[in-house]
Amino acid sequence: MGALSLSRLRRGLESPNLFLREANRLYHRRGYTRPYNTAGVDVFAEDWDNLIVLDACRYDMFADQSSLPGRLESRVSRGSNTVEFLAGNVAGRSLLDAVYVTANPQLRYHREAFEPELHATIDVWEADGWDERYHTVLPETMTERTKAAAEEFPDKRLVSHFIQPHYPFLTDEDVFENGRAFRDRDKVSCWQQVMTGELPVSPEAVWAAYRETLDRTLPAVAELLNALDGKTVVTADHGNMIGERARPVPVTEWGHPQGIYTEELVRVPWLVDDDDDRREIVAEEPVAPESEVDEGAVADRLEQLGYT
């Protein structure tokens, strides 16, 4: 945490907006004493057989665009980004009744720090699960891999962590003007470049790309809902800010910075699709150890997904 804080402090001194963000982070995390949003829900303590997690999906956008079957509620997430969501829900936990199918490499990247006990982890972002055109895992790929996991592990709780509507957006135009090429020595993300004014974009352009990506994703989620047995919940790990004012310091905020617990970032959808035909869930020891993955390859995937 020390090195990370020093890096943030240096960046903050270089940019007034980042300095004000850090002041907000100190407020929300109670001076870095909270490792995640302790006011958020423990998703594994909730009642479900299948949990479909959309990455960076705001509650208000989902409520406006989704026509998926079920009862829409909301929850407060334990994280304002994926790392915090994982820290608050899987870190140090015995989850031997669960299989985690994921398009996001953060679970693998932080595996040693979090040390979760899962029955199995399926990293869809590896090898042929990765789309080289959009530099992400497509929602259709996640649907197919999750259906295969449901057949392979019929007596396990199933988590399917999509990467959409998280950047890179599934649009023909890159609203960040080739923001995938992290341009400075610290590989600052496209969201941070917007925050500091290096990369001028309008909220309208980001909203359009964001909404288009969710529209592309929802049919794949609908197909998965139809295919899965048991009670399914559709949620998100966190939201996203698109030029709204943060609090308590009213700085204009972008993306999903860690430790900023605004409504736009931690209020997430919780769509419940009930099914009377519940699965019998059992906990068992983990399957064969995961294959070794080159750390450089994991870092490269994370950079293409817009992480610093």
Low confidence ranges: 179-185
Major sheet, described briefly? 7 strands, mixed
Which overall shape is indicated by the principal axes computed on the Cα atoms?
Answer: globular
Series of H and E elements: HHEHEHEHHEHEHHEEEHEH
What assembly state would you assign to the polypeptide chains in this entry? single chain
Q: How many beta-strand segments?
A: 9
Residue share in helix: 25-40%
Strand content: 15-25%
Strand order of the largest sheet: 2-9-6-1-5-3-4
Q: Quote the average pLDDT.
A: 90
Q: Report the span from N to C terminus.
A: 15 Å
The tally of helices reads: 11
Class by alpha and beta content: alpha/beta
Radius of gyration: 19 Å
Topology overview:
Elements: H1 2-14, H2 16-28, E1 50-55, H3 59-65, E2 71-76, H4 82-89, E3 94-102, H5 106-109, H6 111-114, E4 117-123, H7 139-152, E5 157-165, H8 190-196, H9 203-227, E6 232-236, E7 241-245, E8 252-255, H10 263-266, E9 267-273, H11 295-304
Parallel strand pairs: 1-5, 1-6, 3-4, 3-5
Antiparallel strand pairs: 2-9, 6-9, 7-8
Helix pairs in contact: 1-2, 7-9
Describe it.
- By secondary structure, the chain is of the alpha/beta class.
- It contains 11 helices and 9 strands.
- The protein has helices at residues 2-14, 16-28, 59-65, 82-89, 106-109, 111-114, 139-152, 190-196, 203-227, 263-266, 295-304, and strands at residues 50-55, 71-76, 94-102, 117-123, 157-165, 232-236, 241-245, 252-255, 267-273.
- The strands form 2 sheets. It has a 7-stranded mixed sheet. Strands 7-8 form a two-stranded antiparallel ribbon.
- Strand 7 (241-245) and strand 8 form a beta hairpin.
- The chain is globular.
- 44% of the residues are buried.
